[in-house]
Amino acid sequence: MDKSINKYIAETGFCSRREADKYIEQGRVTINDNIASKGNRVEDGDVVEVDGEPLKKKKAPVYIALNKPKGITCTTDLKDKTNIIDYVNYKSRVFPIGRLDKLSEGLIFLTNDGDIVNKILRAGNGHEKEYMVSVDKPINIDFLKQMRSGVRILGEYTKPCFVQQEGPNRFRIILTQGLNRQIRRMCEALGYKVESLKRTRIMGMSVKDLAPGHWRHFTKDEIAQINDMVAKSSKTGDKDLGGMDE
Q1: Do domains 2-54 and 58-246 have the same CATH topology?
Q2: CB 78 within 8 A of CB 88
Q3: Which listed CATH number (3.30.160.270, 3.10.290.10, 3.40.50.300, 3.40.50.620) goes with 2-54?
């Protein structure tokens, strides 16, 4: 065995690679009692610990769908009192795939399968995420056109996407990328403020029939469907690991 430290941590089911990098940056990861840094490799026999606790190999894969309520933070850091891990309170370690802003709600996946996380998060794979959004004032045709064609945020233009008005102040949007706080930033750039944001669908899975604040395991068919959809996804090469941000 010879693998990067963040990959090793993800494969134990402790957290995603992106979260692992944060733990490493904070000096909370050690390899054989030495503080780890990005780029370190893990060899057979090495002891890796996070906050002084040895990491254990994960058991059978777990896949959970949660209808996240407002106020829950999509982090594995248990020091955050509103963290999603304590909220779900699953019997073994799981972590979220991507994120939803603390004030946002809706569908999010949790798992202990670090491999599928990387595949789903790759924005280049074009996986759809659908949202229902309400803003602080009536929207017009110019707003819809600009949202559809691309809005300049974070130094780049967003990819063209589907946007449909659902009410005076409400619209539905389908994204295949996931820049940090993308929908909120797009609206702000056009002079609007998001008042509510709910993710209603990820790929072929909907939040329908899942009450707010509740979670359930994927069905066997859903696991098969997700694995089939990401089967051709590249695990490396796409820089955007925020592919499930709202």
Answers
A1: no
A2: no
A3: 3.10.290.10
Please give the C-alpha separations between residue 69 and each of 43, 97, 100, 162, 198, in angstroms, as whole numbers.
41, 16, 10, 25, 9
For the chain, what are the domain ranges?
Answer: 2-54, 58-246
Give the residue from 223, 225, 228, 230 showing the smallest Cα distance to 244. 230
CATH superfamily of 58-246: Pseudouridine synthase (3.30.2350.10)
Separation of first and last alpha carbons in the chain? 36
* Annotation says 142 is catalytic: no
Q: What is the pLDDT along the chain (246 residues), one digit of tens a residue?
A: 688 999 999 888 888 888 899 999 999 999 999 999 998 999 988 999 999 999 887 668 899 999 999 999 999 999 999 999 999 999 988 999 888 999 999 999 999 887 777 777 664 557 889 999 999 999 999 999 999 999 999 999 999 999 999 999 999 999 988 888 999 999 999 999 999 999 999 988 999 989 999 999 999 998 888 878 777 655 544 444 345 677
Q: Is the pTM higher than 0.85? A: no
Question: Residue 159, CB half-sphere, CA atoms under 13 Å: how many?
Answer: 14
Q: What's the token pair of residue 33?
A: 């009692």
Q: In this structure, what token pair is assigned to residue 186?
A: 């797009």
* Catalytic option among 2, 51, 101, 245: 101
